[in-house]
Structures are given as structure tokens and as C-alpha cells.
Fold this sequence. Notes:
Elements: E1 2-9, H1 17-25, E2 34-40, E3 43-49, E4 63-65, E5 69-77, H2 80-90, H3 103-114, E6 124-132, E7 137-142, E8 151-155, E9 158-162, H4 165-168, H5 180-189, E10 203-205, E11 210-215, E12 218-223, H6 238-257, E13 262-265, H7 270-285, E14 292-298, H8 307-318, E15 322-326, H9 336-340, H10 355-363, E16 368-370, H11 375-378, H12 383-392, H13 396-407, H14 418-425, H15 441-446, H16 449-456, H17 468-474, H18 478-486, H19 488-491, E17 496-498, H20 504-511, H21 515-519, H22 523-528, H23 535-538, H24 549-554, H25 589-607
Parallel strand pairs: 13-14, 13-16, 14-15, 16-17
Antiparallel strand pairs: 1-3, 1-9, 2-3, 4-5, 5-6, 6-7, 7-11, 8-9, 8-10, 11-12
Helix pairs in contact: 2-3, 5-25, 6-7, 6-20, 7-8
Amino acid sequence: MSGFVGIWNLDGAPVDRALLERMTQALAFRGPDTQRIWCDGPIGMGHALLQIPPGAPLEEQPAHLEGRLWIAANARLDARDELIGKLKEKCRTADTLSLSTPDAELILHAYDAWGEACVEYLLGDFSFALWDAQVKRLLCARDPMGIKQLYYAQAGSSLVFGNTLNSIRLHPGVSRRLNDLAIADFLLFEMNQDPSTTSFADIRQLPPAHALLCERGAISVRRYWELPPAAPVHFSRNAEYVERFRELLDVAVADRLRGSNVGIAMSGGLDSTAVAASAQRVLARTGNVNGVRAYTEVFDSLIPHEERRYATLAANALKIPIEYLVSDNRKIFERGDEQTRRLPLPINLAWPDASPDQLRQIIVHSRLALTGFGADPAFAARITVHFRQLIKKGRFDRALADAVHYLTRPGRTSRLYLRLRWQRLFPAKTSAVPYPEWLNPGLEKRLSLRERWAGLTHDQFPNHSARPEAYELIASPGWPSLFELLDPNVTQMPVEVRNPFFDLRLLHFLLALPRLPWCCDKELLREAARGSLPEAVRLRRKSPMPAETLNALLQKPESAWVDRFDPIEELETYVLRQKIPPVYCEKDLWSARVHLRPLSLNFWLRHRES
């Protein structure tokens, strides 16, 4: 796991080795073990390595195959044994491959076997740049879900590429000019809506599931994968669903661990505790019974919060140590100046992000962290749709049987979520996200922002998956944005964050499950946890924080300054400061989030050149 950067001078001029070294050294924060560069005339690549686990033999990158193919990668491949089997059938150079072969080397052999179509044979989380010296071709690719990042820029006659935006900005041909539409998207939606651009006009981002090919001076980008609609899965016995889920989860976790110690970002809910239980099972099979530790953010006084209790119960049952991060004394924008000095994009800094502190805890024990992200959308199910479909088909007996089965599950009376269902049926008029009236009118008109707002907030097109609501949520462009925030590109911490629920093998199975009985209220997770987690955790209702952290902080007198901040001159390009309404003591979460975005942008604009 690592950082990489590269330069290809399309006019044939030799690469400036000193410049490439500077750009590679700028990656040392994410690859502290070793930094190497390779140059061959007009092409050069640099790589900074984060070895997992630490102390293992150092992988050498940039890597090559017979001196004709070169690669720099941040890659972790799944189903390696299957891939190696296919390669040995296809390619003479693959005879010596084994499960100990580094992932980057497997990608080289995959390219040798299938050319640019190799990306269609790869499973896992990856971004890479591969140089074919014989035909003078550069192939760059990003994994299907967009967990890894890849940026590129055309700087004069040079193509600059890598997985760390600020490293690319060191090239003298890359300007400081901002991408106004990406900045406007942050103010409107809190994230860039165009997955092919960044906040900088000269720097583009390769979208998830896309490959970039550059040869003979021409650049082309193509999509090589789409999330397939899942056909419903049916087993003859209920136990088979549970067994298959456990099997796939353990495979996903094992492929992400490969025997390494790990820290689990664990709440007291079902998703992250399921990952923790799987990691404990996987490592115990290898004899590593002390390799899993849990890390939990807790609030003891700021807001009502029960994560300490439930996370403790889960950790005790799994026999894993747990550390707590107490966040009661956080302050609004407490890291505004510190974080924005290195951020490659504006993010909402209003509420205190505990991720850096949690990663600092984890790195004492491991360079690897697992999350439970992805379970919520993968299990998403509209129970009303299930019964409506049965009634439409005249299956009244099945509808009655399913209703009885649903209502009689253990702990159901505490998990009917009647208030939430009522709010969804009859939403309050103030629950809609407000359009920001403080946008600069000139910017608003030039970029047609009101039309963009209306166009991007409509309902998604229907799809033909087994559960369209789950498919739509998994395919959301918000996930790659979240992965970017967890990448060392943003966290500045040499910790690899991995998400087992986004394993494509597991994901395809979960998207194919019927709404009842397995998805509504995550019944499959609850059944799979039987015997490994305490009943209090297994049957716990899904309970979001009763009071959001941001709202609680806004009620404190020391937060009043947010309504008095002085904008830097550049902010006026995007925002009319005098039109931002007061936010201090605001109790509506979405109003607070929207109207604090200009202050976050102000911090970022002030420090982006640091």
C-alpha cells in the first residue's frame, strides 16, 4: 500500500529526475518505508511504500517484467489464486507465480496476458500506472468501486499522473487555477458531482471503474465495468443464507488482512461488530489470537450516547481489547487551520472529525484498519414494496405469513421504527435541504447552478436489480468521495483503511437477497451474529445519535464566532458573505451544514498553498 507518481514527456524530452525525486519524496507521509524512482528517457515513475505488515520483506516498486513492462501501483487484489490459475493457463511468464507474488507483479502478468483488457480480470482495490516500453503505451486504471484514487494532468507537453493530488501539483506545468464548478458543487452538495474532475482546473480524476490509455500522444478514457443488476438468490434452507454470508464475509476480510494485525473502527452496532467477529475468526485460524483490536469514539456527556456500553459488550464477547476516544471536549472547526493546510479538496470541517485521532490510536498496533461501511446500503430494503408486490400478485397468504414472521422475530417490538416510518410518510416541511441563497449571483448565472441543483436532486432512474433501492444506494457517487476522505491523501496518516462490505463477491450476494426475511432490519446480520455477539448487541435497534454532534456544539457559547468570521477576498468569488444567515444555536441539522460550508471553504482557500 503506497503512493505513486509519474511523468511522461510526450515530446520525447528526458524526465527531470530531480523534479521526479521531489514529487516522490512528497509521498513519504503515506509510504514511509522506502521511496524509489525509475526513469527511462521521457518516462519516469516514483513510488513510496507502506509495507503491511511492517517488517515484512520490502516490495520493490516501480516493478517490471523483463524490462519491457513497468508499473507503479497502490493495489490489493482479491481472488488471487483464481487470477494466478488463469494467468498460468494464458501466459508463459506466469509459471513462477504464487500467492506470495506481490499484487503489482500480478497486474504486470495480467497485462502481459490480456493487454489493456486486463482490468476486466482484476478484483480488489487498486489504482496503477503501467508502461509498455515496446509499444510506448501508458495504461492507468482505478478499481470498480473507486476505493483507490488516481489523478492526472496535462502540463504542457507532459502527462503527470499519480494517486496523490498534492504531489501532482508540484509539477511546474500544473497551474494553481481552481475549478469553479467543483467549488460550487461543494457549496451546493458538499461534494464534487463530476467524478472526472477535481477542485483544481488542470488536474482531473479518473472515475471509478475507468481506464486511461495514452499512446501516440492521444489520451482516451473508457469505462470497463458497471455494477450488474443482481438476480434474486434462492436457497432451499434458511441456514444456507447464513452460511453463505459468513463464508463470503470471511473471504472478504481474509483477503484484506492476509495475516496482518488490524484495528477495527467499531461502534456498538451490527456492521462493524460483524467485521470484528469475522477478523477474529480469520486470524484465529492462522494462530494469531491477539491480532484484532477495537477502537470506538464515545461521548459521555456532550450528547446522549450508548456506544461505549454496546461496543464494550461486543469486545468482551469477542475477547478483543478495545480503546475509547472520548470526544466530549471537541470544538466546532477545531481543526480548521490545521487540516486545511494539506487538504487537496474542500470538506466540511464544522463538526470535529475524530478520524485522525482514531487512526493515531490504530497505528500504534497496526497499519491496517477495517470499517463496517457498506452494510447499510447493501441491506437497504423497503418493506412496503415487498407487501405491495405480494398483494398486487394476489399472494395474500404469503403476505400474511411474511407479516407474522416479521413481527414475531426476537426483539421486534423495540425495532418497529414507527416514528421513523411516520416521518418518511409525512416529512416535515423544514426537512428539505435548503438551496443556498448566498451564492455569488455571477457565479450562479455563469454555471447555471439553480438548474444544476434541480437536475441533481431528482429521483434516480429505476433499475432492474433484485432490490433497486439497495442497488441505487451502492451505485451512489457519494461512496468514492467518502473513500477519498479516508485515504492518506486526506488523512495524512500511513494507515490503510479497508471496507469488507464493498468486496464485489460479497456485495453481489447481498444485493441479490430478498427483502424479507433477510434484509429488512438486517435480519441476516442478526442471525449470523447469533452465538458470537451478546443478545443486547445482536437485537439492538438501529439508533442514530439522538442529538447530532454539530447541533450540540452550536448551542455552546464559544461557537458564536461562526457568525462573525471575516472572509478572505477570494471567497467573494463564490459567496456573498452578508447573505449567510446566522448559524449559532441552529437546531436544524441540514440548515447548519449548508450555511457552514462557506466558512469551511474560507479555511481551505486561505491555506491551500501551504
